[in-house]
């Protein structure tokens, strides 16, 4: 028994000795296999990442911000410029949570900055931007000098030169110029493909946004080789930044200033001054307004943002591009529709009344007595309501709508600020049948009261001041619908694409022009008969606010009458008392400023 056991033990030992090399080989093979897999992962799968990290450890890219193009008025006066600021920032990849406290304390002591403020900015920045955390903007010259003297001891931090947009005239033409803001992280995801960097600013509204690609330029920079301590060893190359292009606007600074001044004592309103020959906008002002320098501030609190963006006065809304009830300024559309339809020719004479009943309502004459039997010229001069009620109801909504469309109403004007511009409203039977934009289709039919209101620009008609300027330009320039614009940029504005002949008879054009001239000669615009001044034609308007507020006041005019160079629209929002009382003096002041410039 013992011999058999001994034999078995001997056999097992031989087998174990035989298996030892196999086990050892398998262990070695496993170790080398693991090493091979790891090397394959690091060098092949993750090779590009670690290669980039290696390069970044010894190469530092110092970006150079491009100079944004300036905005100039038509005479070259600067309306928007740039100013240099210095910004303290850190690169999160070079400063972790362990090294940050020491760097924070050093910066606080050296630059006399609160530790709590630095800590707050650091905590916010970690979540907002993985590439760069801004600790402080608008450093003083002394702070910049101190930082430069101690830069080697402040690894991971840097002072950058930044250009901030600056508007020397503050709120002047704010809605036209617009403003810039830093791009958001979501915007950066697709803007980075167009050459934007995370530190970039972008035109947010106005001309700044419309001509962003023209103004912004291209980033440049210098590639530096640094040692392990961050000390610069040599320059590896410089790519100069390419400055953006200046943009010459059609605005006239002096005329724009006059437009802003006439709105100073108004609660809200707008002024538009337009060259009827080309559509060049010489002035466009809106009130309430804002200061675009607000968006260039170093830091802005949420309370300050709320005061601007949530204000009940809506200072960011351009009244020049927003639609309102036009009142009697709309009567040129009704007159045009009546004559072009053939039902009410240019020499028609109609009896006017104290009021005329349509549906369940008696629509009044504004003087409550009527003006006797009159023709078109006197109807414009007196601004007779009952004259135009008869024409509008007589031709119907389709003819009125077609005339309005010919004059550009009911659609955007083509101005560069299209994303901020309203289309207005020209109500008609089809629109009413579809629900008027708020009701159920088929349940809000067009009724006689609608047609009477539409005839004098009330309730179912809304226009923007810019649309109104464009329409009156047709009668100022001999029958062409121009495209309003704020910059020339090499476009032929006299081409058919931008200056279209309106399908209107010469007799209709002449009759309406004569009526608008008579408004100033002996009608509601008589206060514009100025000595030593070009002849003026125009029309006043008093409009009920369909939203329930006080009346609006309008006055639209053009001059010189025979060969017009300017159209002025004056609009005083919710200013009861009449267009000839409130809006006419506004237009007059702008015209005087225009005439002064013209005579220089």
Question: What is the rounded distance between the termini?
Answer: 135 Å
Q: Describe the main β-sheet briefly.
A: 5 strands, mixed
Overall 3D form:
elongated
CATH names the topology of the largest domain as Beta-lactamase
Structural class, from secondary structure content?
alpha+beta
Query: Would you identify the CATH H-level superfamily of the largest domain?
Result: DD-peptidase/beta-lactamase superfamily
Strand segment count:
23
**Poorly predicted ranges (pLDDT <50, ≥5 residues)?**
none
Written description of the protein model:
By secondary structure, this protein is α+β, with helices and mostly antiparallel strands. It has 20 helices and 23 strands. Strands 2, 3, 4, 5 and 10 form a five-stranded mixed beta sheet that branches. The chain has a five-stranded antiparallel beta sheet with strand order 12-11-23-22-21. A three-stranded antiparallel beta sheet has the order 1-8-9. Helix 10 packs antiparallel against helix 20. The longest helix is centred in the N-terminal third of the chain and has 44 residues, at 2-45. The termini are far apart.
Which features does this protein show?
600 residues; alpha+beta; Penicillin-binding protein 2a (Domain 2); Beta-lactamase; five-stranded mixed sheet; five-stranded antiparallel sheet; 20 helices; 38% helix
Q: In summary, what is this structure?
A:
With 600 residues, the chain is α+β, with helices and mostly antiparallel strands. It is 38% helix and 19% strand.
